[in-house]
Amino acid sequence: MSGAEKPDYIGADEYLIQEGSSSEIKHEYVDGWVRAMTGATNRHNRVCINCTFQLMKQLQGKPCQPCNSDTKVRIEQRGLTRFYYPDLQVVCDPNPESDPFQDHPKLIIEILSASTRRYDLDEKLFAYTQIASLDYYIVLEQHQPIAIVLRRIDGRFARELVEGINAIIELPSLSCKLALRDIYDGVTFTSSNVQEAELLYE
């Protein structure tokens, strides 16, 4: 989730200090610029919890583990640094427990909302697919059982559209799969992907 932009240019170390000791509001960090995050709908949170639950069950006792949306991912490319809060990530090579971020996710999931769609399908898609460890980037609609799956194949990411309540997303490098029926358990679908308005933090 991301949203209202805050035009303050700061260094990455200063950002981490402020984010670690600051307010209840989360901020993402994009090459020196800080962006405040939005709140989320109950539907958004239900989809996120369902995904986390399914991955936790399948990864129990294994080296790879899911991290929730309180865990940042750090992306360092060409001397620039970004910190995002994915809705969900799975990490097999975790950072030290004292770190407030992960560097090597294998899977990242974002759930689309009105305020994040353009970030998730453009800016973040590009940034996430630069992560050397990443095998899958999954973008989920809230209102319909639809997933966009970016899957690394032979060093490149191939785009796959997965839709329908009976569809399954295979994640072979994690020995997992996500059934859309499980992802959207308890979610009431609408006739289209209409997005509810969300509260923005100042």
List keywords for this structure.
single chain; 202 residues; tt1808, chain A; six-stranded mixed β-sheet; 14 strands; 34% strand; globular
| Derived structural class | alpha+beta
CATH homologous superfamily title: tt1808, chain A
Helix content: 10-25%
Sheet with most strands: 6 strands, mixed
What is the CATH class designation?
Alpha Beta
- Percent in strands: 25-35%
Integer-rounded radius of gyration: 16 Å
CATH architecture: Alpha-Beta Complex
- In one word, what is the shape? globular
Distance, first to last CA:
15 Å
Polypeptide structure, described:
The protein has 202 residues and is α+β, with helices and mostly antiparallel strands. It is 22% helix and 34% strand. It contains 4 helices and 14 strands. It starts with a strand and ends in a 19-residue tail after the last helix. The relative contact order is 0.17. Mean pLDDT is 90; it is low at 196-202.
Please summarize what this structure is.
This protein has 202 residues and is α+β, with helices and mostly antiparallel strands.
Task: List the SSEs and their pairings.
Elements: E1 5-9, H1 12-21, E2 27-30, E3 33-36, H2 42-59, E4 65-67, E5 72-77, E6 80-84, E7 88-91, E8 101-102, E9 105-111, H3 117-128, E10 136-140, E11 146-153, E12 156-163, E13 168-171, E14 176-179, H4 180-183
Parallel strand pairs: 5-8, 9-10
Antiparallel strand pairs: 1-3, 2-3, 2-6, 4-7, 5-6, 7-9, 10-11, 11-12, 13-14
